[in-house]
Structures are given as structure tokens and as C-alpha cells.
Fold these 2 entries.
Entry 1:
Amino acid sequence: MDAIVLLKDDHKTVEELFKKFENAGERAYKEKQRIVEQIIHELTTHAYIEEEIFYPAARAAVPETEDHVLESVEEHHVVVWMLSELRKLEPEDERYDAKVTVLIENVRHHVEEEEQEWFPKVRESLGRNRLRELGEQMEKAKAEAPADPLAVSSARQ
Ligand SMILES: [Fe+2]
Ligand SMILES: [Fe+2]
């Protein structure tokens, strides 16, 4: 699969989970916790494959978007720390919805920048064959992604 198509599919999956969370009842604690567990899994895996495979490849291929990649890693840093906090927070906690809401805002902003400003340039520079190669690598790497958000490399940067 094409790397950018794969990443956009992930973004869609996460956006659907965000909508589910937003539509869940205020007191639907169990449901909200289940959704958040899925969000943690999806975003940790996604950040991992981007950081291990896609970001370095794109940075090398399109040096003029290097600043974008560096900002993206900083944004991942914030997201994975928020994910790790959410893992420990009870859904009944008064900060739970607030933390998820800010997480969602951060990720939506991040995804929009990736998709609108960055992916088109990367697609042009990398070309179809290289993107397919990276897509295959990322599909395989998903199986090796850590469960712990803080095991993703941006957590330590
Ligand atoms: Fe990203
Ligand atoms: Fe992404």
C-alpha cells in the first residue's frame, strides 16, 4: 500500500474514534474508557511508524520541509505524553474529558498540517514506487509498535 494512503487511513480511523468519544454520553464512563483505549493504541502505533519510517524518509527526500518534520515530532511529543497520562486517569475524574478534548484538538491540528501542507510535497518528491516501499515497511512495523506511548522515540525528545 502507498505510504500516504496508509497514513491517511489511520487519520480517518482516529477521527472516527474522536467523533465516537464526542458523541458518548457524559456519564458513559465505560464506553469512553474503551474508546480512549482504542485511541491510545491507534495513535501510539501511528506515531511509531511515522517516526521510525516515514518522517526520516521524507526528511531526507524533501530537505526544505525539515522544519515541518521537527515541529511534527514536538507535536507527537505532547500527544504521547497526554496518552500516557490518560492511561492512568479514571474516566470519572473531572479532568478526563478536558484532557481528551485537548488531545483531540492537538491531533486534528497536526493531521491537518500533515495532510494539507506536507504530504503533497512529499508525494511529489518520493514518487509512487518509493511510497509503496515505505507503505509496506510501515504495514510490517505496525506489528512491532509498542503498547506504551512513552516507548515512542518522540517521548524522549
Ligand atoms: Fe504525525
Ligand atoms: Fe499522521
Note: Residues 3-156 form one domain.
Entry 2:
Amino acid sequence: MDSLHGSALLAADRRLRGDPITGERYFSRDFAEQERRHVFRRVWHIAGISADLEDFGDYVVHSLGHESVLVVRQKGGGVRAFHNVCPHRGNRLVWGDVGGGDGFTCAYHSWKFSTDGLLVDMQDPEDFADGPLCGTLRLKELPAAEWHGFVWFNLDPNAPTLAEWLGPIKQELDRYELDGLVRTAYQRIELACNWKLVRDNFNESYHLPTIHPQLGGFFDEDYKNTEFALFDGGHNLMVMQGVTTSRKEPYVDRVSTMLRDVLVRWDYDPAEFEGRAREARTAVQKRMRELGPSRGRKFYARLADRQLTDAHHFTLFPNVTFTMHPDRFLMLRAEPHPTDPEKCYFDHWAFHRPEPGGAALPEAEHEKFRYGERPISPVFDQDMSVMMAQQQGVRSSGFDHARLSRQEARIQRFHEIITDYIEGRI
Ligand code: FES
Ligand SMILES: [Fe+2]
């Protein structure tokens, strides 16, 4: 699939109903509760990365709203997911993000569970009328999966498999080689806005020339040159041409710092591209094909030309984006706050491939902070500031509903799929 199917967008476009996207969706407690029940309990979630589960008994914990889930490496290599709750009287079993060992011991009355979730030890077993519980009682298990260096879980015991849920978008993502990438940024930022305002922002590129004008030095941000595809189930893909420039002043055909770095990396003299920098994209694609295998990147052969240079922005319904480049990618996620629909958590994880023979990349520590306490990067700081300004606006009685351009169809589709889940059509 070397060119994207504009037809996929058109087909989806015809399916759009045009439901009004009103302000209540972003602050109503009732609506947030419906999402919790009907959306977040039915989709696949990322719990963490496989690199944190190298050895038998290693686990990651992910808390989502009121739920907390353990994903544990099993003997023989697979992973299993369990509710992080002690079945005795409901104590949270494990605190912290990651750990390892031969099981889990509840801090309240010391019930002990093995790594496969079975109760293996307790005090005063003879005192339980229902007994014996040891060897029979288990932590409540959930569907789990491992794919592309991530471990996943689903809160719905009857969920389709991760592969079924991903559908055709999996095929596109499978072309990338993600083994051996190192998580170099690992941040969770609390934002004063509804989680969907984060998703709306990442579901359109209309804001690039206005909020991130500096990206014109590396991307052709014009929607007419950008490809969009909407898939069944709510996932979508946007492909924006990179290693080029905007067609607009002041960026057109000028070599920016970002572009210069890529040209140097692929053995070009950036000066040669001054005044014709839009030719860098195909020149770099050609050089990546020629030199990639000798630089430890045989997998480039699996990628389409566009995947070598262009930002492939995969949105997995409802709340995750993978922004893919051949040797690095971002995982961006928004999760609702457990109790306040006007707050959310924004996860920003970056992954990079170390150079063969080069210095090891340090694994990032988990940083958790509130917006404003420290910057992430100019682009994300620009994004987050508008998301929170929008929260103020959608709260206003002066806001009726969003008025979307066709290039913002992914936002319309996102909201309609949420409504479909809530109203039982999916
Ligand atoms: S609540 Fe866990 S052992 Fe009692
Ligand atoms: Fe943005």
C-alpha cells in the first residue's frame, strides 16, 4: 500500500452524520460517566512497555479512572493482566508503576498471590467458612496482549483480540521495526481540560500553520498535500509530508535547522538545497534506500517511500496517537481524570533507535507534573495552551457547537463513534 486510499476518507466522509459537537460533551459529569461505562471499558489500553517486563514476575501497573490494572510477565514469556485489587476486602494490591518478584502480597492482611494471579498463602485459612481459598481464589483476570513493544489490556472480558480491534491499521504499523527503541521521554501532565480536547487537537492539522508556524521549516502542512484515511472502528491515519518545507513564506525552499540535520545525517551538503529545499524529501528517501542497510536498517525495505520521510500520525480510537518516523516515534495519549471531566492526563512518551555502535540512549524516568510547572517542548506547549483555553470557551453559554472544515473530519468521526458506543450501536 504505497499510496493511501483517499477513497477511505471519502467513504467515511459519506458515513458522517454531522452530529453537533456541543460544549456539554466536554464538561458534563453525566456524559463523562457514559464514556467511562461504554467507551473506556471496551477498548484496548496500553499498560506499559515490554522493556519493563524483561524477566518472569516483572509487572507494570496502569491506573485509568477508578480502575488499576497489573500486567505481569509469565513463565515462558507471555503476559497476563489482573485487576489490581485484593479480593479479600478490596485493598489496592500494588502501588508504584513497575516492579518484579515472585508474586504480590497485600499490605493489609498479607494474602499472597502468585504471578499468575492465584491465592497461594494467607493467615488463618481455617477461619474462612468458604475455604479453602488458597489454590482456588484468583485475582480477576482481563484480556492482555503484547505488540510492538507495548503491553495492553482490555477491561471487557469479552473484548475482541487486539489484532481484531486494530483492524487494517495494524498492517500499516507492522511495517515499522520497533524492537530495540528506547523510551527517551516518559511524561504525564495533568491538564485543566477534558480529555477529548486533547484528542480533537491531534485529530486535525488545521492548526499547524497558526499554532506551530515553525513546523513549516520541515513539513508541508497544507491539507491539500496531506493524506487522511478513516477506518472502521474509529481509528484513523494522517500522512503529512516531511523532510521538505511549507509552500508558504517565510519557509518555502529554505533549509531550516531541522532539515539541515537530516540532510547532514544522510551525507548531503545542506548548502546544495538552499533555494530548493522542497527537493530534500525525495533526495533523502533515495539516500535512505541506498545507505539504510549498511547503517543497520534493513527494515527500510519494508517501508513505503512516504514512510521514510513523512509523519504518519496513527490515531487509535479513542485516545492514543502514534506519530511514526522510521527511527523514532511518539505515543501521545489522553486519559480522563477519575472524578473531574474538566481535567485529564496527557501522556507524552518518545522512543528513539540507538545508532549501531553509538552511545546507549538513557531510559527516561517517569515524570508527573501539572501543565505550567515545566515545559515539554515548544510544539506541545503550544498545543496544551490552546486545549485549556478551549475548555474555558466550550463552557460558555456563547458556544453552540463546533463548525468543522472537511479536513477536520477526523474530529467529527471521533465524536460520532463515541456516541455510537454510548448509544449501543457499537
Ligand atoms: S484486603 Fe488484602 S489481605 Fe485483606
Ligand atoms: Fe499541534
Note: The domain at 6-42+167-242+310-422 is CATH 3.90.380.10 (Naphthalene 1,2-dioxygenase Alpha Subunit; Chain A, domain 1).
